[in-house]
Amino acid sequence: MPQIPLLAWIFQTIPECIATASLAMSIATNEFYWNKIWKIGLAQAIITYLIRLLPFTPGVHVIILAATLGVLCIHIGKIEMKRALTFSAITMAVLVLAEFVSVYSLMSLGLTNFEEMSQNIYLRIIYGCPHIIIVFLIALLFVKKKLNLTFLFRKSDNYYFTEREIDE
User: Fold this and answer.
1) Which of 24, 27, 21, 63 is nearest to 44 (CA)?
2) What pLDDT shows up at residue 165?
3) What's 12's DSSP letter?
4) Among 9, 32, 1, which residue's Cα sits nearest to residue 124?
5) Measured CA angle at 147 (ends 87, 134), to 5 deg
6) Which of 12, 75, 105, 113 makes a 20 to 30 Å CA pair with 155?
C-alpha cells in the first residue's frame, strides 16, 4: 500500500475516519456523542496512516481497520465488545460499498479515469468526498429515525434493556 500524502490524510482520511466513527457510534447508541466520535475518528486516522505504511495485500488493511475501529469504540465509546466489533464491521462494509458506488458513478461520467485520479491528489480528495457524505448521511439516518440493529443479537444479549422493552 502506498503512503497517504499529507493533504489526502488531512482532507480525506480524517473526515472519512470521523464519518466511520460517527456511523459505528450512531448504530450502537442512536446518538451523536461528538466528544467520543472525534477522538475515535482522529485515533483511527492516525492508525490508518500507520497501517497504510505496512506492505499488506490490498483489502487486508480494511479488515485491520475494522478491528481497530471496534477496539476504539470499546475503549473510547464504551460500547460492549460484541456490539462494537459487529457494528464496526458493518460500518467498514458500508464504507467500502459507498466508496465503490460513488467512485464508480463519478468515473462512469467519463470525467477522469482511475489512474489519473490515483496520481492527482486533488482529484483523489474530490472523488473521496461523496462516499464520506454518504456515510455521514447513513449515520444521521440511524440517529434521526432511531434505527437499531438489536435483531442481530439474541434477546438474552440485550441485557441492558428492561424486560418490557425486550418483549415488545
Assistant:
1) 21
2) 47
3) I
4) 9
5) 70
6) 75
Q: Roughly what angle, to the nearest 10 degrees, separates helices 81-108 and 14-29?
A: 130
Between 57 and 139, residue with greater pLDDT: 139
Question: For the CA atoms of 139, 24, 21, 134, what is the dihedral angle to 10 degrees?
Answer: -30
Torsion from C-alpha of 81, 66, 149, 98, nearest 10 degrees:
170
Question: In which residue are the cell numbers 490508518 written?
Answer: 48
Grid cell for residue 54: 505496512
Residue 76: DSSP 8-state: T
Write out 97-131 in H/E/C secondary structure: HHHHHHHHHHHHCCCCCHHHHHHCHHHHHHHHHHH
- Pairwise CA distance, residues 143 & 71, whole Å: 22
Long-range contacts formed by 3-6: CB under 8 A, 24+ apart: 3/52, 3/53, 4/48, 4/49, 4/52, 5/121
Contact 19, 37 (CB under 8 A): no
Contact status, residue 65 vs residue 47, Cβ threshold 8 Å: yes
- What is the pLDDT averaged over residues 35-58? 94
